Amino acid sequence: MNERILVVEDDPSILRGLQLNLGMEGYLVRSAMDGETGLMMARSERPDLLLVDLMLPRLGGLELIRELRKSDPDVPILILSAKGQETDKVAGLAFGADDYVVKPFSLPELLARIGAALRRPRARGETGVGRQVRRFGRAEVDLVARRLLVDGAPVELTQKEFDLLAFFVTHPGRAFRREELVRAVWGSSYEGTARTVDNFVARLRAHIGDDAEEPRHLETVRGVGYRFTPGG
C-alpha cells in the first residue's frame, strides 16, 4: 500500500510543489494550510508521515507537534522551515519532530529523509492502530491508555507527570536540557522555571522504582539535564 503523507504548509507554491513531486513518487498526499486543520487531519486520518511547516496560522507547527505527540508518539514528523538556527532545530526535535529540513531544500534530499523516516520501526504497527507500549525495568507505559504499571500494578500519575514520562520513553538515549523539556512538555508559554523538571523527575523516579542516588533509567547528565535509558 502506498504511504500516506500529510503536508501542513501555508505557502501555496511550496504546497503545490510538494503535492506534485510526492505524488509522482507514488505517495498519497493530503494537505492542510493551517495548524488546527493539520492537527485535526493527523488525528482522524492517521497518515504514515507528516511534513510540517513551523510558521503556520491558527496553530504553530511546534504546538501542532506537541499536541499530536500526546496521542501519537510514533508517527514520523519532518519539519520544513526557513528558520535554520541551531536553537530552532533543537526546539523542533525537543517538541517531538524526527527530522528538520531547512528551506530552501533540494527535492532529492527531502525524498531521502522521508524514505529513511518511513523505514524506521514504528510501535503502532502496520495497521496504524493498537496499543503503544514501552517496557523498561519494572515499568510498562501504555502511551494510548496513558497508564503506568510497575510490577504489574497501576501507578497514578498527574497529567504532566505522564506527559514528561511519555516524552522520555519516546526519545530514549538522548540528553535533553531542562529548558528543552519545559518547552516540550509544558509549552513555550509556561512561566515556571526549569527547576520544575527536577521536581518532576524526582517524582517519576519514585513512581518507577528508580534509585534516586544511582538511577538506571532517568539519568542525570551533568551540565546538561536528563536522559532516559530503557536498559540497565
Structure write-up:
With 232 residues, the chain is α/β, with parallel strands linked by helices. The chain has helices at residues 12-24, 35-45, 61-71, 86-94, 107-119, 159-169, 178-185, 195-208; strands at residues 4-8, 28-32, 49-53, 77-81, 99-102, 133-136, 139-142, 147-150, 153-155, 175-177, 218-221, 225-228. The strands form three sheets. It has a five-stranded parallel β-sheet with strand order 2-1-3-4-5, with helices on both faces. A four-stranded antiparallel β-sheet has the order 6-7-8-9, covered by helices on one side. Strands 10-12-11 form a three-stranded antiparallel β-sheet. Helix 2 (35-45) runs parallel beside helix 3 and helix 6 (159-169) packs across helix 8. It starts with a strand and ends with a strand.
**Shape, principal axes of CA atoms:** elongated
Instruction: Give the low-confidence spans.
Output: 123-131
Largest sheet: 5 strands, parallel
Q: In order across it, which strands form the biggest sheet?
A: 2-1-3-4-5
Per CATH, what is the topology of the largest domain?
Answer: Rossmann fold
Under the CATH scheme, which class of the largest domain? Alpha Beta
The secondary-structure class comes to alpha/beta
Provide the β-strand percentage band: 15-25%
Order of helices and strands: EHEHEHEHEHEEEEHEHHEE
Number of domains: 2
Relevant CATH superfamily of the largest domain? Response regulator
Number of strands: 12
* End-to-end separation: 39 Å
Indicate the percent of residues in helices: 25-40%
Specify Rg, calculated over alpha carbons: 18 Å
Number of helices: 8
